Amino acid sequence: MKKLCYSLSLTVLLGCTSLTKESNATTISTTIQKPNVIIIYADDLGYGDVGFAGAKGVSTPHIDYLSKNGLTFMDGHCSSATCTPSRFSLLTGNHAFRKNARVLPGDAPLLIDTSATTLASIFQDKGYTTGVIGKWHLGLGDGHLDWNKTISPGPKEIGFEYSFLIPATGDRVPCVYVENGDIYNADPKDPIKVNYKRNAFGVKSGLDNPELLTLEWAHGHNQSIVNGISRIGYMQGGESALWKDENMADTLTDKATQFIEKNTNQPFFLYFAFHDIHVPRVPHPRFVGKSKMGSRGDAIAQMDWCVGQIIEKLRTLDLLENTLIVFSSDNGPILDDGYKDKASELVGFHAPSGPFSGTKYSTFEGGTRVPFIFYWDKHIQPAVSNALVSQVDFLASFASLIGYDMKDDNSVIDSKNYLNAFLGKEKTAREYLIEESYTLAIRHKQWKFIEGVKKIPSWIEEEKGINPGLSLKDQLFQLDQDSSESMNVIEHYPEIAASLKAELQNIQKANKQSKAQ
């Protein structure tokens, strides 16, 4: 291995800085060289959408490589069944309900408080170069956004030195990249205007001009047409800056590998957030037909290729042994999500959520139980873990890894240090875990309690064809006997339900002073 591995070394006390009574970590001291850290974050990728979990009709050899040679968590979760809340939790170490975080429009202000500790800021504090590349969807600016000026606040103000972003999602305007706060390839003579309320610019739309579409919309995605695809929201201008959907994976991966090359001689943290396999699914022509599931499957194959490019770049630069790679997803899978791309018709025997019920937008397990891999060559031994783990704990765990002291940090409420579990040193992690999707659910061992709601949003089932897993009454499931969550057993185990409900209420009441969980 190169001597680029930074003579700087850390004495890592694995588990010794736990902030919660949940952790039963023993203190294990080991000296390691300061590792690079890359979080590869897929979009809408389900538990069963990858080869090692039984995917049918598509191959994912590069993700399977990480699994085979790393630590694969079978009970690993994002924090929410939708994207913005999960991304908020991953970066802040706080559950999204504390900020009332929901899926944001494309012109929303920055959701994360610039004074808060973030995953990026702790790495920056410890001398890492930090970068975010890909889908953002956490808001930009202060609520008075002018796309033709340098945008602030944004990633820079929460700890990312370099950023190259899809500002919101691929199906929302503006359909441009933002690099370090400025529109990429912008032409000052062709200013960008965005409106999410009405077609104030008289631009062509999917609703009024379906003959211009190369991909037919199904519901909601019928406003401005960009690259033959109608989006959510209206935009005018910025012709030189508009992305080509079919080139997006190449563009983002090129930026990621360039970031790695540029920082070969210093430790770096990279948050690489894919667009795939979010809609609109328009893979590059070289991936078309690579699966048996149409564009959704082809987008999975493309996403896997992107993973392979990162692995190969690290290998070429002799950095693989000194780089910790995390691979996961922001929420569970979805087939039909606004465009008629035949995802449902072509899915065949493939089970996107694996053996679980629920998808994106659902409080059932498939909404938050996602692919979850930690790979670190020669430091993490290949294994499968049944530990209950959450992305909300990345912040505190990585803080422990790099020696960042969170003892007096009151901006982080929910993140706990489970570094031992993430490195395969311990077989257990969380005692209680929160899952969020239009209500809150709490996991404890084989038990899952879902809090009742006052009203069930009808659009989830009507537009998406999804069972949201919601009920007007509380629900209790025993997952070791009922992985599909088809039998509500709350009447048989009222004491367990009452105990979990009380614990859930305690977590909801936790504040910056108590950090109780």
Across the major sheet, the strand order is: 8-7-6-5-13-3-14-15-4-16
Proportion of residues in β-strands: 15-25%
| Poorly predicted ranges | 1-31, 513-517
CATH architecture tag of the largest domain? 3-Layer(aba) Sandwich
Instruction: Estimate percent helicity.
Output: 10-25%
User: How many DSSP helices?
Assistant: 10
Instruction: Report how far apart the termini are.
Output: 41 Å
Q: Report the top-level CATH class of the largest domain.
A: Alpha Beta
Query: What is the name of the CATH superfamily of the largest domain?
Result: Alkaline Phosphatase, subunit A
Q: What is the H/E string?
A: EEEHEHHEEEEEEEEHEHEHEEHHEEEHEH
Mean pLDDT: 93
Q: Quick one: biggest sheet?
A: 10 strands, mixed
Tell me the CATH topology of the largest domain: Alkaline Phosphatase, subunit A
Tell how many strands the DSSP assignment holds.
20
Report the principal-axis shape. globular
What does this structure look like?
With 517 residues, the chain is α/β, with parallel strands linked by helices. Helices cover 20% and strands 18% of the residues. It contains ten helices and 20 strands. It has a ten-stranded mixed β-sheet with strand order 8-7-6-5-13-3-14-15-4-16, with helices on both faces. A hairpin with a 2-residue loop joins β10 and β11. The longest helix is centred in the middle third of the chain and has 23 residues. It is globular, with a radius of gyration of 22 Å. It starts with 8 loop residues before the first strand and ends in an 8-residue tail after the last helix.
